[in-house]
Amino acid sequence: MEVEVNIRKLQDSLEEFAVERDWNKFHTPKNLAAALTVEASELLEIFQWMTDEDSLRISDSEKDMGLIVEELADVQIYLLRLCDKLKIDLEAAVEAKIAKNALKYPIHLSKGNAVKYNRREE
Amino acid sequence: MEVEVNIRKLQDSLEEFAVERDWNKFHTPKNLAAALTVEASELLEIFQWMTDEDSLRISDSEKDMGLIVEELADVQIYLLRLCDKLKIDLEAAVEAKIAKNALKYPIHLSKGNAVKYNRREE
Amino acid sequence: MEVEVNIRKLQDSLEEFAVERDWNKFHTPKNLAAALTVEASELLEIFQWMTDEDSLRISDSEKDMGLIVEELADVQIYLLRLCDKLKIDLEAAVEAKIAKNALKYPIHLSKGNAVKYNRREE
Amino acid sequence: MEVEVNIRKLQDSLEEFAVERDWNKFHTPKNLAAALTVEASELLEIFQWMTDEDSLRISDSEKDMGLIVEELADVQIYLLRLCDKLKIDLEAAVEAKIAKNALKYPIHLSKGNAVKYNRREE
């Protein structure tokens, strides 16, 4: 797997794609957020009737994996578009969120349970 | 904005985070796909009552932008987790999808309209 | 438009449908909640690139309305299934929520703005 | 559980609620579809880290059931609003969809599997 991803290059390809098709008028932040949700749900659809065990063995199915790769790519594409339109540095955003989550979910309170921090009974 | 993102480093941080909290048992592909959809919807919620014009001016609101950066990061985090669990090369997936979309949406048929390729009347 | 809807009769039809196909094993509350989200997103997909004005004129398009009616029905179907499985009285739930919303969104604070009650600056 | 639900009465309450708060300007079909998706995801969030077994035992948790009832009500509320705005007869839509599903999923092809009709290998 590639280690370094050139975000800017991907965003430039996507912008060019939109310009060529005169699609920027559709790509408002609101519409991109809606499209992102729709694509995430298309990914979820692949898993919706599976048991947890089925989902753990999904790599065995080449057909399912092909569908998953495409839906994941769609989610990533709209995420890149939205960050480009809003001038958001995605890597910095992820690093900041990981740091914040470490504060919200200290190990001694979170070990082995996934209770949302604001529903935790302390 | 950073140009090169080190995907592997982010994925390793996220894996470490999960291991320390014994959360890998929750992180089945199915559950990560559900979490991804939930986070995408939390992003959409910020925009849901806005007009297109409001959404185009959203960068003016520091408060909204703060919320958006966090939700975008959450979506990216679950996307990275899912790709790590399923050994998917996200950059290759995005590049392949852009190439496929160029075939599905040729410029002369798509210019100025966003009709889904399988609903197009040819 | 029909005024009285016989919820029980619809739920019985849906249960019979599931029993005949041996689908109850798939219809866990979690899976039904996932399916509900997926169907809601399919509805949203129809609107995702529309302007607000386009969406206000959607009744003019027989084709779009046909798609919308089907997606709305799918959402209602999974909602009915989930309420049946969890023994929830949907009408009572809606009435209770309207009453609760009236407290959360008093007219003098909410008139003309859609700020979520927990983000309101009082 | 109530058998007959007076859809019209609920829709009239919701319309009155919107009029009093001058919220009809926000309630375009597109925005209502987005809100519906957001609420469906909030329901899914309750289940996202549960195993299937956890989700089958959810009725045991009064706290979770309280959250679920509220989120289900929100989904139903936006569904009723959207049908009201678009003059869609929800009961007729559900009955038509059940009939259509019976054709798409004949018992002998669907028994015990949940393969989507358009992915079935016949």
From TrEMBL, chains A, B, C, D:
UniProt xrefs under Pfam families: MazG-like
Xref: InterPro entries: dCTP_Pyrophosphatase (IPR052555), DCTPP (IPR025984)
Membrane-crossing residue ranges in chain numbering: none
Record protein name field: Nucleotide pyrophosphohydrolase
Record lineage: Bacteria, Pseudomonadati, Thermodesulfobacteriota, Desulfuromonadia, Geobacterales
